[in-house]
Amino acid sequence: YHNTYKIIYNKFKDVSYLLYQCGTEPPKEEVESGKHQMVIEVPHKGGLALTTTVQIPHIEMLGLRREVKGYIGETKYISSPCLQQMVENGEIESIDKNAVVAHGESNTDTNELEEFLERNPDTIIIGGAGDDVTAPNTMIFTSSQEDTNVGNFDWIAFFAALYNKEEMSNRIARSAQQHFDCASENAYFLSSKPTERKLATTRRVAEKDDDEEEKTLLWANWIEGYGWSVAHCPNYQSARQCEWAAACNVKILSRPEGVGSFQEWSGIKYWYLNDEEFLDFAKDASHWIYSSQFWDNVMEKKGEEYLSQFKAYQNKRIWDTQGVDPNAWFEQRLAEYYVVGMDMCAVMGVDDGLHKSRWFRNIFTEQPGELGTCNPEDIDEPYVPPVEDCVPIAATLNAVGDVVSDNDNAGALASTVQGLALIASLVFAVSLW
């Protein structure tokens, strides 16, 4: 940041962009240096063309839906109800960069993207990690290259810089981090041994049997033609689920080094287990998050005879990612990493018992969720995840001033925490954003 301008550096692609404030002159020395790929007046007025659904949540959180003028790709994969409505209304143009636009006798055929840029010369295309940094009108957005949930989420600042909304994005990021930290602190408090716990806690502890089996989490899904994809911690490809498990103080099963077979793309090895290897690896896991929306497919392909050998299946402790909507996991979930963390703690039984999992749905007892529709007034409003504030259990109990050890008192304190959670939910819309 400088007096009248700011510079965005993308370290993954080694490219920078110079942003200067409306009503000022761009710094001559910086412009003439030639080191910046684009020079842009802010707040930006020409609109945006997105290229992937992972860019949508950051835009929605900042209330910038109206800035989206085009989507380069197949709009059917957009899960946001408001953006889908804007596509249907013609407010967002669907662009196929490979589709040729004929110009009759002029013999100067172009593609849809070129046509779009001719009509919208000031629109910025938000490219992805694999896109050319020198492509016309293109800024590269590489949140996918981050190996932590927080790192991915913090790319909200990329869009905020274009619209002078840094204060808003910083507030959103801080709130998300606080929720995530609160859920983690609760999980560690609840999963500690009674002899190590300074204070008894809510009904989760009251109901807990000291002889309860060790909880282990299986994070895995089956991919047709390849096999079973499972977590491997710590590893870039599994970084986010490993981070969630660590935050919840949960043991996550990790593929042993060298076990299975791999396919290699762009120099990266993707490992898979066959059915026999997977059964040996996963059969004793107490909880299973099936990290896909296609549980019905694996049920049909593998059958109950195979799946019933898994403890998680026997105990009906399998969740998939259809809690909000069958497709939203690959889009809107990126705006809610802290909610997913709270969800994981909830399904593993290491939370206060008040939070209901939003993203993970039990495949035995729950139907897939639906995102619903977009009201016209919602389009101009920032997206706020519909989840209550996390209640810090240890701090709450300290505030109450009681130290308890028996189940009756723990149950009574659960009521206290429930009351505080209700109050927190009433002020959530104000306190979060």
Tally of extended strands? 18
Summarize the amount of helix as a percent range: 25-40%
For the CA atoms, what is the radius of gyration?
24 Å
State the distance separating the first and last CA atoms. 24 Å
* Shape by Cα distribution: globular
Percent of sequence in beta strands: 15-25%
Unreliable runs = 195-211, 400-433
How much is the average pLDDT?
Answer: 86
Major β-sheet profile: 6 strands, mixed
Question: Given the helix and strand composition, which structural class is it?
Answer: alpha/beta
Question: How many H/I helical runs?
Answer: 16
Quick structural overview:
34% of the residues lie in helices and 17% in strands. It contains 16 helices and 18 strands.
From the structure above, extract its key features.
433 residues; alpha/beta; six-stranded mixed β-sheet; 17% strand; disordered C terminus
